[in-house]
Amino acid sequence: MGQAVRVGVVGVGYLGRFHALIYSRLDGVELVGVADTDRGRAEAVAAEAGCAAFTDPAALRAQVDAVSIVVPTTAHLDVARPYLEAGIHTLLEKPVAPDMDQGTEILRLAEASGATLQIGHLERFNAGIMALAERIDRPRFIEAQRMGGFKERATDVDVVSDLMIHDIDIILGLVGGEPTEIRAVGTPVLTEHVDIANARLAFADGAVANIVSSRVSEQTVRRIRVFQAGAYLSLDFVGQTLDIARPVPQPGGTRPEIVRERIDVEPVKPLDAEIAAFVDCVRTGRRPLVDGAVGLRALAVALEVHRRMAG
């Protein structure tokens, strides 16, 4: 396999801790260290993952080939800049940035140095989404629902940046184009930010997508339905089942029969798959599935959803 890829993690809160633990288990990877402004947090995760702890991210830069940056979105540019300028391959959590100017600058930095930049839209690595994407052919209507209970850790952003951006990214990937019209409504419920939202995206080829996202719902629902010529597909993220219905012609010219098929998707932890894919891109030079341009496109649509909700 050759020399181990030396990695670090900047920001080891709830999600960053998982990044560190996954790297610590990967073959051909050396987790050099973790950095966090909270010294106690850095030391606790470092002890768990078997690496060094730092409070200053600069201490990691001279020691790593690649880094995961898992800090608040508003700090993405400031934290990522020195790594990207140094040509260090970067897995940056989603969304890529709080606004298009900062997102564009992050992409420019990566392109200038040749560093691999992957954005952490981990639902692209959900095994069910991968199975669904293989079966998509010019979708006409997509309906996505992502609803769950309130979690205190995500209250610094609204439900669009927290949850809906996952489905925006997935839908852009499935349709393969840019929306030509966006309509959206949303309202705060438990925080000062929008907690429940609906967006409607219309595309140039006639496809339409409807997205509902809520973080104040009693039940957890994560489902996407796709209607296309000759097929209806429904993916349950929670149950990891893909249901497909297709019309099958019948002899004698009678009306086709609807034949249903259920595919039980082999469950794979999306974050494990995302990080393994990032390391593979670092090793091979391949372009990430969710590169900076893909992340910026999802951000552009999410920001337009925000504008439409504001009236």
How would you summarize the topology of this molecule?
Elements: E1 5-10, H1 14-25, E2 29-35, H2 39-49, E3 52-54, H3 58-61, E4 66-69, H4 76-85, E5 89-93, H5 100-113, E6 117-120, H6 127-133, E7 139-147, H7 159-175, E8 179-187, E9 196-203, E10 208-214, E11 221-228, E12 231-236, E13 241-248, E14 257-264, H8 270-284, H9 292-309
Parallel strand pairs: 1-2, 1-4, 2-3, 4-5, 5-6, 7-10
Antiparallel strand pairs: 7-11, 8-9, 9-10, 11-12, 12-13, 13-14
Characterization of this structure:
This protein has an eight-stranded mixed β-sheet with strand order 8-9-10-7-11-12-13-14, with helices on one face. Strands 3-2-1-4-5-6 form a six-stranded parallel β-sheet, sandwiched between helices. It is built from nine helices and 14 strands. A hairpin with an 8-residue loop joins strand 8 and strand 9. It folds into two domains: 5-121 and 271-289, NAD(P)-binding Rossmann-like Domain (Rossmann fold); 124-268 and 300-309, Dihydrodipicolinate Reductase, domain 2. The longest helix is centred in the C-terminal third of the chain and has 18 residues, at 292-309. The termini are far apart. The protein is α/β, with parallel strands linked by helices and 311 residues long. The protein has helices at 14-25, 39-49, 58-61, 76-85, 100-113, 127-133, 159-175, 270-284, 292-309, and strands at residues 5-10, 29-35, 52-54, 66-69, 89-93, 117-120, 139-147, 179-187, 196-203, 208-214, 221-228, 231-236, 241-248, 257-264. The protein is globular, with a radius of gyration of 21 Å.
